[in-house]
Amino acid sequence: MKNINTIILAILCVAVAGLYVLYFTSGKKVEAVADKNASVRTSLSIDSLPIAYVNVDSLLVNYKYAKDLNAVLLKKQEKSRAEVSSKELQLRSDYAAYAKKVEAYQNKMATGQILTKETKDKEESVLVQEQNRIAKKDQDLKELDRRLSQELFAEQQKMNSQLRDSINAFFKTYNQDKRYKVIFSDTGNDNIFFAEDYLNITDDVVEELNKRYDEKK
To answer: Is 168 found in the same domain as 153?
Structure first.
């Protein structure tokens, strides 16, 4: 029995020693692989990975042409809003005046100031005409608001198309040297979840776009 216990103890010692050797050896291998991966990432460049991306939100905020187009659109929007607001204010004033006329007519009827049918029909005819006039102004205002909204939408679409054409034309010359095989657009991190910083060429693109825009102005 004593011999068996001695043999088992010896086997356990060998097994533990083997685990220690395996642990420290594998640890060194993991560190070596990690160092190698870090070295690979560091050595990557545009030349070895010819792709890039542009943050569209940042581009639109900083591109002078985009800002100028947006300023023009906002000015037209403010003008349209002012025109509609002015007519709406006038319509409210007309309706308030009409309400007072209706109230005055009702008081006359209640106090017996209108004695003849002819007078009654005449005053009611005036009120009906005023009511129709206000209803038409209200309809005209709604039509104006709809038309101006459509015009603004069409203008926005036109400007978006001009801006898109400007950017597309720029990239054809920007990448004439075929430095990039693919240039992605990223909007609010919707298209790209993660990318190394060196792949982001937004600042360079904005700088070149503004330089060309200034030259054309």
So the answer is: yes
Q: Is the pTM of this model over 0.90?
A: no
DSSP, res 199: G
Task: Return the residue matching tokens 């993991």.
Answer: 30
Cβ burial of 208 (10 Å; 0-12, 13-18, 19+) is middle
Spatial CB neighbours of 105, under 8 Å, sequence gap ≥ 6 = 123, 124, 127
Number of domains composing the chain? 2
* Residues above pLDDT 70, as percent of the chain: 77
| Domain coverage including residue 30 | 1-43
Same domain, 57 and 103: yes
Q: What is the 3-state secondary structure (H, E, C) of 4-58?
A: HHHHHHHHHHHHHHHHHHHHHHHHHHHHHHHHHHHHHHHHCCCCCCCEEEEEHHH
**202 and 106 co-located in one domain:** yes
